[in-house]
Amino acid sequence: MKQVKLNEDMKKKVKIKRALVSVSNKDKIVDFCWRLSELGIEIISTGGTAKTLREADIPVKGVSDITKFPEMLDGRVKTLHPFIHGGILADRSKETHLSQLKEQGIEEIDMVVVNLYPFAQTIAKEDVTLKEAIENIDIGGPTMIRSAAKNFKGVAVIVNPERYEKILNELRDNNGSLSVETNFSLAKEAFQHTAEYDTVIYRYLYGEENDFPSRLNLSFDKIQDLRYGENPHQRAAYYRELNAPEHALVSAQQLHGKALSFNNILDLDAALGLVREFTVPAAIVIKHTNPCGVALADDLLTAYKRAHACDPLSAFGSVIGLNRVVDAELAKEISSTFIEAVIAPAYLEEALEVLTAKKDIRLLYIGEGRSADNSEKDIKRVDGGILLQDKDKGVDDRSAMKVVTERIPTDDEWGDLLFGWRIAKHVKSNAIVLAKELQAVGVGAGQMSRVVSAEIAAKKAEERAKGSVMASDAFFPFRDGIDAAAAVGVKAIIQPGGSIKDDEVIAAANEHNIAMVFTGKRHFKH
To answer: Which residues touch 1 (CB under 8 Å, ≥6 apart)?
Structure first.
């Protein structure tokens, strides 16, 4: 992105004499306008904002008093008038502009304080109608914002109530003036505000049935700058998507520990995505975005102990995902080794006392709801563009799966097969997961050869591989993967099927008396 070049002196002062105030979000507006008035700044306002200010005994002129024209069309037309936009848009450096204002009896407007109808909040309501949504598309507001932002050399535009205090301080310190530098900063924020607003409207009107639009507009708010990216030489920042679901990772509250790193956030996302696959107590151990431990149990403490036991070496410095409240006993178990971060629905007070004794551990609270936006998309950056796809979400139905071998899985094997299959979806391809009694016992991730992934999973599992089941995120291209599974004692395999050598793979499974299930669905994760 090119850097904007400004030739003028950004320290030049702009005297604020008149302000137009029309806000949907009235947070802090009464105090702000009181203090503007105390500084001798005349206030013009509209509708509900004017009513609020008058009730607070703040001197206000109505827009209709300025335009000599009534609000009309149920308030759709209020500020769209030359007496308003002429006062905002006139270039103060041009004598021709100023003389035209004088000829028409138009006074300059030096500040515009506007934020927009709550369109995003409106469409978030259940059963909102198109008519109701349309009526909450602001017209006059964005027009005033854009006019003022365009003319930042002479006009200040404020769309964010969090800016009020700083603006008042500068006005007091500079005898009722703001610098062009401040106005420029406000203008950038204003254009961002209107761009985000239009993006939300565009997405809503485009509709869910057309959620791969011909032109994609993305809008995110910065949460924080990060110390660095994946590596110390890379700069990074963390952003929240507009209208992100309530229980999404970006909404998690950090209760303790150092600031999150870029890699912490990626690992936390991986932990949260996998732990939400399960409704019974589940514990996830993540290292470099791959699960190195997963287990289910009747209680969370047991689940965590079993997950950690899958690969204790890799669990050092890992990120933990949990789907139940953390108690003191579990907190002690977590504290017994070095853990980078924990994300959980909640923590008991006694658990926090234990965990916060560790200075560096990051504790995140996500709440007990679930982020369930089925329209979520997965975005991947490529050179000069992006790839957009549906997220690989949802639980695969056992009834759609097919047993293709002579031996049928036992009920216990079925439980482990479905458990391992859910895990494999969250492991980098090529992915192999060995599971036994609802515990991952070996994970092979990210290898170029599927049989090598199987060998790594078996090496991690050691003796526990005997009697386990194997889940593969994609089909076996040759029988060598089945032979490798049989060599370590695997009793059942779940995989998508679809290889041109499926017959040979099935025959190998039958030779080894291994039960095999085809899901008909692949779960690559690149």
So the answer is: none
Listed by start position, the domains of the chain span 13-210, 247-365, 399-518
Match domain 399-518 to its CATH number in 2.50.20.10, 1.10.260.40, 3.30.1360.120, 3.40.140.20.
3.40.140.20
Tokens of 436: 């036994």
Q: What fold is seen in the domain 247-365?
A: Cytidine Deaminase; domain 2 (3.40.140)
Report which DSSP code applies to 488.
T
Catalytic residue among 258, 288, 377, 501: 288
* DSSP E strand stretches across 266-384: 282-287, 290-296, 318-322, 339-344, 362-365, 377-382
Catalytic residue among 28, 61, 97, 150: 150
Check residue 357 and report its DSSP letter: T
CA dihedral 337, 338, 343, 347 (to 10 degrees): 50
CA–CA dist 428, 446 (Å, integer): 5
**Residues 6 or more apart from 240 whose CB is under 8 A from it?**
220, 221, 222, 223, 250, 251
Give 414-458 pLDDT, tens digit per residue: 999 999 999 999 999 999 999 999 999 999 999 999 999 999 999
> Residue 376's CB: how many other CB atoms inside 10 A?
14
Q: Which fold has domain 13-210?
A: Rossmann fold (3.40.50)
Query: What is the value of pTM for the model shown?
Result: 0.74
* 247-365 and 399-518: identical CATH topology: yes
Report residue 407 as tokens: 């031996």
Q: Would you call 359 a catalytic residue per the annotation? A: no
pLDDT category, 3, cuts 50, 70, 90? Answer: low
CB-based contact 264:341 (threshold 8 Å): yes
CA distance 88 to 150: 9
Q: CB under 8 Å to 479, separation ≥6 — which residues?
A: 501, 504, 505, 507, 508
Does residue 367 register a pLDDT over 70? yes
Instruction: Provide the β-strand partners of residue 515.
Output: 492
* Residue pair 180/12 in contact by the 8 Å Cβ criterion: yes
Rounded alpha-carbon distances, angstroms, from residue 262 to 230, 234, 235, 265, 343: 6, 10, 10, 5, 16
Closest CA to 434 of 311, 275, 317, 299: 311
Query: Average pLDDT for residues 489-513, to the nearest whole number?
Result: 97
Is 288 known to be catalytic?
yes
